[in-house]
Amino acid sequence: MTTGVVVLNFGEPDEPTRESVLDYLERIFMNNADLEGDTTEAEARQRSRQLAERRAPGLIEEYEEIGGSPLDPQAKAQADALEAELDARGFDAMTYTGFQFTEPFIADAVEEAHEDGVDELIGLPVYPLCGASTTVASLEELTDAVDERDWDVPVHEITGWHKHPTYNRIRAENIRAFADEEGLGLTDDDTELLFSAHGTPSHYLDEGSRYDVYVEEFCDVMASELDVESYSLGFQNHGNRKIPWTEPEVEDVIADIDAERVVVEPISFMHEQSETLSELDDELREETEEVGLDFYRVPVPHDDERFAGVLADLVEPFVADFDPSYYQFRQCQCKDTPGTMCLNAPFSR
C-alpha cells in the first residue's frame, strides 16, 4: 500500500511581482470574507480585491527588501526530508507539497497524488500551533479537493502537534544556542525573552479555536526548558480589516519592556517568511531600537535535521496502520470531524 502525505502550508510569493502578490492577497481575503459579516459572493470578491489593492504596495516593498519569500522552498525541502525519513523507516510513502495561497495549491497536490495512484492520503499541516485559518482551513481544503475530484480514498487528518517532545527540544535548544552565540544570558535582569506569535482574528477564538491557549502553554514550557522565570508574549496582528485580533500586540509589549535588550522568538513559525524577515527583523527591530532596547531575533530552525523525524513520528501510526492513541493521538477538539487526530486534546475518562 502506498501512502500519500500532503504537507500543507500557507505559501507566499517567491517573486515580488505585482500580479503574484495581488493574486496571493486576494485569495487570503476571499478565504476570510465571512469575518466582515454576511455578503454575496460577488460582493466578497469585490471587497477582497479592494483589500488586496490596498495592501499590495506595502507587501511588494517588503518582499523586495527580503528578496522574495523563502517559505515555499523551505517547506518543499521539509517535505522531501520527510519522504526520505519515511523511506529510511521502511514505509512506502510519497510526499506532496500543497499551499493554501500560492502554487502548488492543495488541489494540485491532491491531483498529483491521484495520478500517482496512492492508496490513502494523510493531511499534515506544518503549523506548529493549531489555528482555525491555518491548520483547520488547510485540512478542509484538502478534503474538499478530494471530494470535488470524486476520489474514493481514505484521508487521515492531523491537526495540533506542538506537544511533540522532540519538537519542544528543537525549539528550546535553538533559542539557547542563539543566546550563547550572541553572548546573551536569558536569565539576566537586563534581558527580556519575548515570544512573538502570529495573531488571529478574535472571531475564531470566540467560535471555539484554542489557538491562544496553545500559544500560552507552549511559551510556558519553553520558558521552563530555558529556566526563564518571566517572559513577554505579543501577537503579530494584521490590521487590514477593522475587526478585533489577539492581544496584546507585540508592538505594545515592546513599549512596556523594562530591560536593556530583547530576544525575540517567533514561536508560531516553522519557516522564515515575511512575518519574520520583514515584520520582525525590520519593523519590530526599528520600533524596539526607538525605545532604546537592543534587538535580537532567534532564527527559525526550519532546517534542523531532527525535524523530519518529528514529522515522520506524526504520520507513522497512519502509515504503519496502528492505533494512533498509542502515540498519544486523540480526537481533535478544534476540528471535530471524526478521525481527525491531534496531540492537544485532553484524555477522555
Automatic annotation (TrEMBL):
Q: What is its EC number?
A: 4.98.1.1
Does the entry feature the keyword Calcium, yes or no?
no
Q: What pathway is it annotated to?
A: Porphyrin-containing compound metabolism; protoheme biosynthesis; protoheme from protoporphyrin-IX: step 1/1
| Keywords per UniProt | Cytoplasm, Heme biosynthesis, Iron, Lyase, Metal-binding, Porphyrin biosynthesis
Family matches, as SUPFAM superfamilies: Chelatase (SSF53800)
What sort of enzyme, by top EC class, is this? lyase
Q: Does the keyword GTP-binding apply?
A: no
Q: Would you say which domain of life the source belongs to?
A: Archaea
Binding locations of Fe(2+):
H198, E275
**Record's CDD domains?**
Ferrochelatase_C, Ferrochelatase_N
Predominant location of this chain? cytoplasm
Q: Which GO terms describe its molecular function?
A: ferrochelatase activity; metal ion binding
Q: Please tell me one Gene Ontology term that the record gives under cellular component.
A: cytoplasm
- Purpose: Catalyzes the ferrous insertion into protoporphyrin IX.
Q: So what family is this one in?
A: Belongs to the ferrochelatase family.
The name of this protein is Ferrochelatase
Q: Which organism is it from?
A: Haladaptatus paucihalophilus DX253
Gene name on record?
hemH
